[in-house]
């Protein structure tokens, strides 16, 4: 029983409702869908700005989707008390001349689940990031566009894994820059979260039965050396759910032009996700340099 409960918390798909819409912000957009290399259908919004620069936004995992975070259905203890709308930074980007592809990773929002019908914290979702980039380049109006990757938490993990794959993101010349927001490895999260060891073992056994391996067996830190575009890493220094040494290892492993932005905000991991939309100009300027 405990094993299923813990595993469900970490890998159960479709845990968050679609609570927002670009129409609420007066944005010109299109509903889109596209397939991954393993034939998973992903769905999203393509918000129309210019055709020469596009941001591909990959959201964080499990309790999120392309719209962001909504506390509805999150139980008594909620990590954040109000909606975090990722359309706020999308609106800012569109107003500054970018198109934005916001899509649901597999098992989230309105996208389908994959052959492994659980959330894997990045290894499987890496295929989704590649598919999103390839979808943009395959459209005639965007085939010559410069692409920026806005990759948040599990989105950052998935993007980094995607750089490590054969014929992965390192082979996509249209990508010019990345912003990686609070990359997080599973084991470091559990350590910081303080989950008792007996619950970790029970949950890990169930998860291994579900996806074929324990989440802690994979690490995107092994793939940082293949990231080949200028990368800004953003991290709340007061985040209680991570290990800042791990974030530094991620940053140190990047061989590309890079910078680190430490935020000094509320002692809550979700505060940085909220900050993206409240202060977008302080972060999105990274894309202005390279796109």
Would you kindly provide a written description of the structure presented here, covering whatever features stand out?
The structure is a single chain. The chain has nine helices and ten strands. The longest helix has 15 residues, at 197-211. It has a single domain (2-290), classed as 3-Layer(aba) Sandwich (Rossmann fold), CATH 3.40.50.1820. An eight-stranded mixed sheet has the order 1-2-6-3-7-8-9-10, with helices on both faces. The protein has 291 residues and is α/β, with parallel strands linked by helices. The protein has helices at 2-11, 87-95, 126-138, 154-164, 186-193, 197-211, 244-253, 270-278, 280-290, and strands spanning 29-35, 41-47, 53-58, 68-69, 84-85, 99-103, 146-152, 175-181, 231-236, 258-263.
List keywords for this structure.
single chain; Rossmann fold; eight-stranded mixed sheet; 9 helices
Secondary structure: number of strands: 10
Q: How many distinct helices? A: 9
Describe the strand arrangement of the main beta sheet, using strand numbers. 1-2-6-3-7-8-9-10
C-alpha geometry = globular
Mean of all residue-level pLDDT scores: 96
Indicate the CATH topology: Rossmann fold
Q: Decide which structural class fits the backbone.
A: alpha/beta
Q: Give unreliable regions as ranges.
A: none
CATH superfamily: Alpha/Beta hydrolase fold, catalytic domain
Fraction of residues in H or I helices? 25-40%
N-to-C span: 50 Å
Q: Label the CATH architecture.
A: 3-Layer(aba) Sandwich
The protein's oligomeric status is single chain
